[in-house]
Write a structure and sequence with these properties.
Layout (H helix, E strand, L loop, with lengths): L13 H12 L2 E7 L11 E7 L5 H9 L17 E6 L3 E5 L10 H17 L3 E9 L6 H13 L3 E6 L6 H15 L10 E2 L8 H10 L2
Parallel strand pairs: 2-4, 2-5, 5-6, 6-7
Antiparallel strand pairs: 1-3, 3-4
Helix pairs in contact: 1-6, 3-4
The structure holds guanosine-5'-triphosphate and magnesium ion.
Magnesium ion binds next to helix 2.
Length: 217
């Protein structure tokens, strides 16, 4: 049981921000889309992944972080990303864009297959250094998210909640949503005790997230 206040992460130091900027200004490339655990690239460097409900903004966030418009494919249709997509960040990191969970406009059997893959990946990747779990800033943590958070607890994968679409959150709702998220995170021992609030639209929180990734060792 966590008894942590889960504050929104403070602005990183100038040095940390600069490390993040440099890391993400380097070469980023699509490596491959993986449909089975056997297809994962060699576990030869650290990686971070972006998990979350369909349509929460995972692919868009990867594009914002890397400064590309279309490195990761995005869509209005939930269920756009159906494979585990690997991107390199220089030669030192992998960024991993995951298929969404929850709702998807795809056949049931296909969704079931990629959900199995998602769960196998989240609990069985030794080089996964941190899972960023994206939560829609307008909606907070839902029941489907809980399932993934519990899986990450069991697998002892440290995860950090990143709130997305901050530009769409009414100022009056912001603290209410943050408090809901904080309360829901209490039972999760694998939860990193700081939240990140982002908008891929305005760029809010993007430099902070870059600094967080660059600060992992
Ligand atoms: N206003 C706003 N819209 C966003 C933001 N991030 C993503 N979106 C929109 O949300 C929709 C879904 O974004 P994606 O990045 O494709 O979502 P995803 O989580 O990768 O979805 P799946 O691959 O289907 O699981 C797109 O229409 C994006 O333009 C944001 O910060 N603000
Ligand atoms: Mg996607």
């Amino acid at each position: 049981m966590n008894t942590l206040p889960f504050p929104v992460v403070e602005a990183p130091s100038v040095e940390a921000m600069e490390r993040g900027r440099k890391l993400f200004a380097g070469r980023t490339e699509f490596v491959k889309g993986v449909v089975a655990m056997s297809g994962l690239p060699a576990a030869d460097r650290m990686e971070v992944c972006f998990a979350g409900r369909s349509n929460v903004g995972k692919s868009t966030l990867i594009n914002a972080l890397t400064g590309h418009k279309a490195l990761a494919r995005t869509s209005n249709t939930p269920g756009r990303t159906q494979e585990i997509n690997y991107f390199t960040l220089q030669d030192s990191h992998y960024l991993v864009d995951l298929p969404g969970y929850g709702f998807a406009k795809a056949p049931v059997a296909v969704v079931a297959q990629w959900q199995r893959l998602l769960k196998a990946y989240l609990s069985g990747r030794p080089t996964l250094r941190r899972a960023f779990v994206l939560i829609d800033g307008r909606h907070g943590i839902k029941a489907v998210d809980e399932e993934i958070l519990s899986l990450l607890d069991t697998a002892a994968v440290p995860f950090q909640v990143v709130l997305t679409k901050a530009d769409k959150v009414k100022a009056a709702d912001r603290e209410k949503i943050l408090d809901q998220v904080r309360a829901r995170l209490q039972p999760h021992p694998a939860a990193f005790p700081e939240l990140v609030v982002t908008s891929s639209e305005t760029g809010a929180g993007i430099e902070t997230l870059r600094a967080i990734v660059a600060g992992l060792d």
